[in-house]
Amino acid sequence: MDESRRKRRRALPHLASGKRARLHQHRPPVRLRSLVMNSPTHLCCDATIPAGEPFLAEVKAGQTVRILDLQGNQAVDTLFFSLSNPRERYDVQRTLRRQNSVYLTTGSVLFSNLGQPMLTIVDDTCGRHDTLGGACAQESNTVRYALEKRYMHSCRDNYLRACMHDGRLSKADIGPNINFFMNVPVTAEGGLTFEDGISAPGKYVELRAEMDVIVLISNCPQLNNPCNGYNPTPAQLLIRN
Questions:
Q1: What whole-number distance in Å separates Cα of residue 184 and Cα of residue 191?
Q2: In this structure, how many other beta carbons lie within 10 angstroms of the beta carbon of residue 139?
Q3: Which residues does the UniProt record annotate as the domain DUF1989 (predicted)?
Q4: What is the distance between the alpha carbons of residues 172 and 164, in angstroms, rounded to a whole number?
Q5: Which letter does DSSP use for residue 11 in this model?
Q6: N-term to C-term CA, the chain
Q7: For residue 223, what are the CA distances in angstroms to 21, 51, 62, 235?
Q8: I want to staple 77 with a disulfide (CB 3.0 to 4.6 A). Which of 34, 65, 149, 218 is the partner?
C-alpha cells in the first residue's frame, strides 16, 4: 500500500460494529457500512449524528429509517442513492410532480431520476419537510449573507467530505436534497423564506425503503438563518428490519 493510501486509510473515522452502535462527536460518522447488517434483531442501527457533521449508511429494501430531531429546530439535509447503481438518485422534480405538493409528509413517495420509487414516508410527527431550500454552501452563504461567511462550515462541505471517504459517490452526484424538519415557506410572490422550525424535541420522520439505498446526511451546521435556531444540535438515526 502506497503512502498516500495509508494516510487516507488512517484518516477514515472509526467504524462501529455489533448489533447496536452509537457514534460520538469525536468520531465523525461518515461511512457506516458495518452498521447495516442482516440482523435478526428489530433494531440494527442506532446512531447519533453530532451537530454539523455528515453521516452515510445503507438501508435495505423493506427496512425503515427513522430520523429524530433530538433537541428541536434542527434541519437534517438528506440525499438518497440506489445502492446497486448510485447514479440513480433522489429526484426532486419527479417527486414533487407525483405528489403535487412542494412539501413532504406521511404518504409521500420519493422517486428517483429513473422514475422508480425509492422510499415512502410512513410516519411523520413534524408535519411537513422542505424540498426547495437546498443545502447551504460556500457560494450561497456568500450571496445570501456576506463575503466573510464564505468559509463557514456548510452542508455541501459535509456531503463532499462523506463522498471522499466513502468512495462510491462524487461531487457530480450531489443534487437537490430534502431538508427534514426545515421550515421554508413559499411566499405569495413565489419566493422562499427561511423561518423558525416547526419541529420540536423528539419529533421524527420515518421512511420505508422500497429499494436498497444509500442515505447521505448533513446534520446542518448553518448559523446564519433560523433553520437550526442559530444553534446546531445532534440528530439520531434508527434503522429497523
A1: 10
A2: 11
A3: 48-214
A4: 12
A5: H
A6: 37
A7: 29, 12, 36, 16
A8: 218
